[in-house]
């Protein structure tokens, strides 16, 4: 079908808070680059209002939605169908309207793996996962899928860390354990880590984690899911210790690209999406991938 005959649809991200979200800039740039007449907006929705908001979205025949904090788990029982990925992770970040059915998917884990690229050989590797919330579940499930041999979960609330470690074992990780955040400070858990992923929002406020980055092997990669214009203290300390780092920008890009592809059935115009994030002030610390992405040529009218 010619692009000009595609009906304009409304898309959006729901969350609370949501004003900081860069998804509208990224998705509207993607629609423009793909010559689609759609519009993506942000909507502040608290958990008790989600059911009503989804009913409204259905009535308005919206094209699709993203969910951010704190709605990703609230949405689970509100979906008619969950993809295998959303079930594995236990959270929903992307919603599709398929006829009368609301389908819940999750692109965070796959977005994380795409952002990681081939930086780390994950097969049999040891990962230290800091945090045990929704994004830790997505990253953990992705790491298990990629063949990680051992995952150590370090979390503030020990019970949640233990629950996540048990869940990742159920998903197929041969060796999982849970430790306290204080257990990280000594450095022992990092001794053979190939990857250390901070999934807590601590870096948003510039707060620090007590961690001896230098206790990790020299080739260990440190990732913070928080993204912004400045490195978080967690990543800044890794750089000082001479370790490679990656912030949350590339994951934001790739989880958004996967959502775009799910909604539209088209390849995401990654270069245009990355440019929109850069224009919004984000430093995409992914030079190799940035060189390899190509904007998809829009279909001829
Ligand atoms: N780059 C991306 O594409 C992307 C995607 C998803 C999420 N994120 C970012 O990842 C972060 C976490 O999101 P989420 O959905 O996982 O949130 P969440 O479900 O609320 O989980 C937050 C986790 O951080 C821990 N935590 C919170 N405050 C802490 C503190 N002051 N000290 C120590 N631990 C603390 C919590 O520990 P307790 O269990 O003890 O409460 C919990 O394990 C957010 O900043 C979000 O923006 C980025």
Sheet with the most strands? Answer: 6 strands, mixed
Helix content: 25-40%
Work out the number of β strands.
12
Major beta sheet, strand line-up: 2-1-3-5-6-4
Question: Quick check: average pLDDT?
Answer: 91
| CATH domain fold name of the largest domain | Rossmann fold
Total domain modules: 2
CATH class value of the largest domain: Alpha Beta
Structural class: alpha/beta
User: H/E element string?
Assistant: EHEHEEHEEHEHEHEHEEHEHHH
Q: How far is the first residue's CA from the last residue's CA? A: 9 Å
Second CATH tier, the architecture of the largest domain: 3-Layer(aba) Sandwich
Description:
With 301 residues, the chain is α/β, with parallel strands linked by helices. It folds into two domains: 3-109 and 252-292, Leucine Dehydrogenase, chain A, domain 1 (Rossmann fold); 115-250, Rossmann fold. The protein contains eleven helices and twelve strands. The chain has helices spanning 23-33, 50-59, 84-89, 108-116, 134-145, 158-171, 182-185, 233-240, 249-264, 270-279, 287-292; strands at residues 10-15, 39-44, 64-67, 81-82, 94-98, 101-105, 126-130, 150-155, 175-180, 195-198, 221-224, 244-246. Strands 2-1-3-5-6-4 form a six-stranded mixed β-sheet, sandwiched between helices. Strand 5 (94-98) and strand 6 (101-105) form a beta hairpin. The chain is globular. The chain binds NADP nicotinamide-adenine-dinucleotide phosphate.
